[in-house]
Amino acid sequence: MSYYQVGSLEQYFKHYNKSLREPRKFWDRIADENFTWYQKWDKVVEFDMQEAEVKWFLNAKVNITKNCIDRHLAKRGDKTAILFEPNNPEEEAQHITYNQLYDRVCKMANVLRDQGIQKGDRVCIYLPMIPELAIAVLACARIGAIHSVVFAGFSASAVASRVNDSGCKMVITADGGFRGSKTIDLKGIIDEALEKCDTVENVLVVKRTNTTINMKEGRDKWLQPLLEEAQPNNVAEIMDAEDPLFILYTSGSTGKPKGMLHTTAGYMVYSAYTFKNVFAYQENDVYWCTADIGWITGHSYILYGPLLNGATTVLFEGVPSYPDFGRFWEVVDKHKVTQFYTAPTAIRALAKENWEWVNKYDLSSLKVLGSVGEPINEEAWHWYNDHVGKKKSPIVDTWWQTETGGIMISPLPFITPTKPTYATLPLPGVQPVLMDDKRNEIEGNQVVGSLCIKFPWPGMARTIWGDHQRFKETYFTAFPGKYFTGDGALRDEVGYYRITGRVDDVVIVSGHNLGTAPIEDAINEHPAVAESAIVGFPHDVKGNALYGFIILKETGEGRDRDNLMKEINEHVSSHIGPIAKLDKIQFVSGLPKTRSGKIMRRILRKIAEGDYSNFGDISTLLNPEIVEEIKEGKL
Ligand code: PRX
After folding, report:
1. Domain range holding 599?
2. Which atom of ligand 1 lies at the shortest distance from residue 403's CA?
3. What's the CA gap between 599 and 592, in Å, rounded?
4. Number of structural domains, the chain?
5. What is the C-alpha to C-alpha distance for residues 247 and 265, in angstroms, rounded to an integer?
6. What is the reported pTM?
């Protein structure tokens, strides 16, 4: 029996139990049967969770790009690997076959080597969502260089701190990037960033927007001429299983960003296995994940997971609102997309618009819908299910993190019965536990606690680049011997998990633990509300009280505010209980969000507390101007 694919609920439990009882055998089999190795491992796993030391597939030798590309050539050489859909719908889509991908990655890998990049060197990739981004990432992996993709929306100072932290030797960027109706001056941002970086020797520039840019003599080179001169074939570097594959920065709760380090073999096995099962991928499917490759979702589920399975993966340069709110659905229709994976924030934004935008297009090709990045509220879940999935495509609400490398808790489509707002069950190989404040494991169902993982899985990050101590302290100290996710979760009567949000977002009101996510859920269901964020603020009697920042839909705009506040509170009371009543409500036009769409709650907490002294670093906000507006509008 192969463990690579789960075919039924019964089989899921069988595989799951096998992975609990004999994790080594379970992963050994999956790794053995589904990948190409130069040399197999001596030992499946070795770990010390107290010390945050984990190794998988010890002493195995492999190259991930041989598995993503070369091994598909015989059978799938003419199949589309990457389907590029440009920002402008008038520009033609590009179908890059596996053969073409092989050629382009080999040439790019040779360019990198010609420019002096060697195994172990760090390369910062700051590119828009164009094929060269995928090709640059794979070319690094081909020669064993460690890619550090920085989302091409980060500011110069954010780029500089990331380049410096990992000591990048090269930056790959573009003259500019298209994003909706805007053109972003990427090269200008890199020029500014590199004023503060000493380690970068070369900058390779892709031509995309034809923007006039400065080229610094001796440092900057156009990529295209180098590619034209490059040799066609490239011998992939033989990598050890635990050689670093990439660094990806994620924001810490405080201080500087954390460069999460992922290594080669474990990440490969895990991203491939999870992709195959969570999206029930079949040979002729057209899979689309709308994330950016600058985030872990793009790494694992635009590039590595799909390509490892020989899939066709859509690479979309644009945004959901350009040229209109039907853009996502137009692309689904045009390319007959079968799996569609996006974030709740996008779903909510689109749900605010007329659903005629969805109905205009034929979405009958869709089989599976996915959600990732934050808890999906009930209203958004139903909108997604009703209008996009037409109640026939299961929604996989996938819980995971940059640190986990791949999906950890998720329904398997057509197998696990879904339940709105629940990520449901752990994937085989994943052992979640809920912990109480006294560091005890909470047994049984219908319980809430801090979500930890008690056994290593192949895709987990191995360290924080240059700071193993921080890695250990952040993830392995709160609950010694276990990986602490930073999230709270509840386990319902059948053992399904619902992620309630970051543990630091829990507010204790009159001694009751209240997750902010379910309260927001309830508020968002009010017909006049578009989005909300709840934080705690100090209260004389209750200890903490709740403060709600609420964005209204157009339908709520002209209404009597006092009445609306009353209505919203009644709504919350009836959904959660009177304890969840908000003491203060402020209507706002936007919420401070990071570029990945997460609300930056620490700022809202400060405003709610009336402490304007130090907002900390707001440079990573998408809309920093909103902070001032909210502050001014405070009651
Ligand atoms: O709080 C959880 C939330 O996003 C966090 C991880 O963020 P990041 O590292 O940026 O990775 C996002 C993409 C994997 C988690 O700790 N989160 C992610 N997915 C879900 C979620 N919360 C609830 N439900 C989810 N499906």
Report:
1. 510-633
2. 9
3. 6
4. 1
5. 15
6. 0.84
